[in-house]
Amino acid sequence: MDFDSVIRKRASNRNFGLKKPKIEKIMELIETANTAPSPGNLQILKYLLIEDEEKIAKIAKACRQEWIKKAPWVVIVCSESSKVDIMYDERAPKYIKHHVGAAVENLLLKITNEGLACCWVGAFSEITLRNALNIPESAEIEVVLPIGYPSKIHKANQKPKPHLYTRVYFETYGNSFKEDYRKIWTD
Length: 187
Fold this sequence. Notes:
Elements: H1 3-9, H2 23-33, E1 45-50, H3 53-63, E2 73-79, H4 82-88, H5 92-113, E3 117-118, H6 126-133, E4 140-148, H7 181-184
Antiparallel strand pairs: 1-2, 2-4, 3-4
């Protein structure tokens, strides 16, 4: 699939089929996430791979998302920020967010390209996840990513996005006027 098609096809999918991706496929996904830019080239992200059904059920409960129970794999992305905190001080939290976002987007695009399904879950009970998965306090739980092959019955489609003319400004914030802008905006 060409790159633009992958971007347009990527959608949050909460419906999984019965086929389970092999561990090699999951590791390919993680390798793609691992190529994302990082603050100071410090490799702070950790990937916790879960396939145990009982643990996945606990994750679903921690997220209050029953559909997660149907996922054959869950990837929990964590960050260990101590080195970034030392290097960047008060800017560290911003840089960590940038890194997590870039890594997860790489992962989501690879998931789409490989014909898999996933949904980014950011709301969860941190204490429940820590206790269920033995995640230390030194690791910040960033996101939960249930992954599997998509259901053939329920197709996920990307939701329409607002037109760019409501989101792009020229030269100063709020200035959406540009001479000959009709040539720029496409429908």
